[in-house]
Design a protein that fits this description.
globular; five-stranded parallel β-sheet; mainly beta; about 170 residues; about 0% helix
């Protein structure tokens, strides 16, 4: 495991973070456990071989799982909750966070520069061997072997095992 000294992982939260073997975290990565999390099991799980690009942030209230060999470009954001903003008379920072959901990013996925994955409720999964384009905003699940891009993200290509090629998807 290689964690750059500039990464922010609070010691008080370290018991809720699980790192596999051969995990790499570049400069200024921030792993955060949001207030209101219960203490049952790890909230952030980074599988074997995960590589997290500089300035990326993972913030979990419930659980975020990166399976083996997930690759983040720089500045990727993954959050399983959001800031609460239901009361317009109260400052947002004083309202806490939403109950959120759960995120699973399948093995061997690649998230491009500036990609955002947010789950406000339920479960969001990105299937194994998928690619998320740069600056995409993912708010729903996608199957394995997908290329997704845009804001909001949509399916662009999918792998066809019969032909052994990536084919254009029609949403």
């Amino acid at each position: 495991v290689s964690i750059h000294y500039s990464c922010e992982i609070l010691r008080s939260m370290s018991g809720q973070i699980s790192l596999g073997d051969d995990v790499y975290m570049a400069h200024d990565v921030w792993l955060n456990i949001a207030p209101g999390s219960d203490n049952s099991g790890p909230k952030i799980v980074l599988g074997n071989g995960c590589k997290i690009g500089r300035r990326s942030m993972i913030s979990a209230r419930n659980q975020i799982v990166l399976e083996a060999d997930v690759l983040f470009a720089p500045s990727v954001l993954v959050m399983d909750h959001n800031h609460e903003f239901s009361n317009p008379e109260e400052p947002i920072h004083a309202q806490g966070v939403t109950s959120g959901g759960r995120i699973v990013i399948g093995r061997n996925c690649w998230l491009g520069y500036g990609a955002v994955v947010v789950c406000n409720h339920g479960e969001l999964s990105i299937g194994r061997n998928s690619v998320v384009g740069a600056n995409s905003v993912v708010t729903r699940s996608f199957p394995p072997y997908s290329v997704i891009a845009g804001n909001p993200a949509r399916l662009v290509r999918t792998y066809d095992p019969k032909t052994g090629t990536w084919v254009r998807a029609f949403d």
